[in-house]
Each structure stands twice: as C-alpha cells, then as structure tokens.
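Run log // design_07
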C-alpha cells in the first residue's frame, strides 16, 4: 500500500468513518486504516490523516501541527482532517487542513 492510497484515522466514530469513506472511496483505490497510536500519524505514510482532536492533549496537538508544518505544509503532500472544530495555527490556515463537516 502506497502513501498515496492510505487514509489513516485516529479516534473516529462509526458515523465519521462512513463520511470519510465517501470522501475516499475504496473503488478509487483508497485504503482506510484506523490506529490507536498517535505516533502512527507521524510514522505511517498516508495521503490523509483524520483525527478526533477531542482525544488529544494540547502537547499532542502541538506535535501534530509542528510535524505537519515542517514536513507537509510546504508542498501540501498530506491532507489533515479533524472530526471536530479545532483552532488551526495561523501558519497552516492556507494549507490542506480541514474540519470534516466543512468538506462534506
């Protein structure tokens, strides 16, 4: 499985999983994967990561945003989707960072 096909989900509900499956259908070659390890969001290559921000500490949120800003924001090589509203750092306002309900 290549990073271009993997959608990695962290802490999503069944309803949110269904919405994500509509955005990234299996028929178009995407693979939906769930993880319960925060480090997978950084370590596992993916086209998109979908995160429930309510289960992250402030330090974990900062870690995810810092990683995205340093590695992916310059070339938009990763889509970051949050399942609930979250304050997105100003440096990422024009990157591929979205709230799930705003893109469906």
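design_07 sequence
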């Amino acid at each position: 499985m290549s990073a271009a096909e993997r959608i990695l989900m962290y802490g999503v509900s069944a309803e949110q999983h269904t919405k994500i499956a509509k955005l990234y259908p299996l028929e178009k070659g995407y693979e939906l994967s769930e993880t319960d390890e925060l480090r997978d969001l950084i370590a596992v290559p993916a086209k998109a990561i979908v995160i429930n921000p309510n289960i992250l500490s402030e330090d974990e949120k900062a870690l995810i945003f810092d990683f995205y800003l340093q590695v992916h924001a310059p070339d938009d090589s990763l889509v970051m989707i949050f399942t609930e509203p979250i304050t997105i750092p100003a440096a990422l306002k024009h990157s591929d960072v979205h709230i799930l309900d705003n893109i469906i």
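The first strand starts at residue 6 and ends at 10.
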